[in-house]
Every structure is written in C-alpha cells, then in structure tokens.
Amino acid sequence: MNNRDSLPSVAAWRAAHLVERLGRHLRAGDFDKGLNPAQREALRYLARANRFSKTPAALADYFASSRGTVSQTLIALEGKGLIEKTKSDSDGRSVILALTAMGRAYVAADDETLLARDIESTGEAALIASALEAALRAAIRRRGGREFGVCRTCRHFERDGATRRCALLDEPLTAQDAEAICAEMEAA
Ligand code: SF4
User: Tens digits of per-residue pLDDT, 169-181?
Assistant: First the structure.
C-alpha cells in the first residue's frame, strides 16, 4: 500500500473540512452588494495581482475561464464604476485593468478581507498561508491546471538585500510586488 492508498490523518481531514467550511462561509455573501461571484473574484484578483498580471488575458487564465466570459465580467464591473481600463504604456494595444477608488473601498469591506483579518488575529498567518498554498499547488497539479502564486515564491524572483528583481521579465520589483499574484509565476 502506498501513501496515496492510505487515508489522511485526522488533522488533515479536519483541516480539509475547515477549509471547506470557510469557503462556504465566504460564498454565502457572494450575491451581497449587487455583485455576482465572478465579479467579486475579479475584484479580489485585481487587488492582489502585480502590474504584469492586471490584464483580461491573465484574469481569464487565473480563473480558467474563456476570454468572452471574463470580458462580460469586466464590462459589468466597469459599468458599476469599480474598475477602469487603460492602454498599456509598452505596446499601446493591450488593456491594463485597475480598481477605482470605489473598487478599492469594496475590497476593503469584502468578506475575504474580513477573513484575512481573522486569520491575522491568530498570529499564525504566514504559517497558515504557506500550508494552504502548498495544498492548493498539489490540488492544481493533480488537475493539470496552471499554477498562480505570489511573486516571492517564484523561481525567477531574485533578492539581494533590499533589491528585488524579476529575472524572467528583467524588471525591478518592490516589496509589495513580492507579495502580489503573478500570471508568469513558476514555483521555485
Ligand atoms: S519573479 Fe516570477 S512571479 Fe515575480 S514578476 Fe517575475 S515571473 Fe512574475
């Protein structure tokens, strides 16, 4: 019998159950404040993505969704004044997405933000985040999906004292960039 045939430990079952309950708790508020789940998820993504990943294409990849579906979501969010689109400085053709002040206020009061505060209050936020991230990576790998993750866990992330750099895109990175989600991320 290999590890895959044996049952998980009681602690692992309990953790899986708690994750599922937390997910249900978050989804319970999904239609609050006039947004559907896809629209809320898009706002959450834009609040956490880095500057290379705030595009409709990256959003579609992140949600494993079609460009058409994402486009409808973005049109709705723009119509509600929660996001704005600008042309990319680099090629002038691709669209860059950003939260408006109203979008940022929405995210600040969002259930996921409130849950993050609850997690922070345990004093174990970093530990919880890395354990959940490892579990999520394993789940994505099992399904053959594409990994997204925070920049500082990427194999292209380089740090020399206070200087941070992306070796793939050859761009300097800030401390804030290091904690953001990136569409190009490859696990170290
Ligand atoms: S280091 Fe990796 S995650 Fe960070 S910006 Fe570069 S490609 Fe993206």
Answer: 899 999 999 989 8
CA of 169 to the centre of ligand 1 (A): 7
Q: pLDDT (tens digit, 9 = 90+) per residue, 29-58? A: 777 678 888 999 999 999 999 988 999 999
What is the amino acid identity at position 4? Answer: R
Whole-number Å distance between alpha carbons of 115 and 131: 17
Using the mean position of ligand 1's atoms as its centre, give its distance from the Cα of residue 176 in Å: 12
Total structural domains within the chain:
1
Q: Are 185 and 157 in contact (CB under 8 A)?
A: no
Domain of 26: which CATH number? 1.10.10.10
Atom of ligand 1 nearest to the CA of 150: 3
pTM above 0.90, yes or no: no
**Domain span at 86:** 10-182
Residue 5 CA: distances (Å) to CA of 2, 8, 136, 138, 142: 5, 9, 20, 16, 15
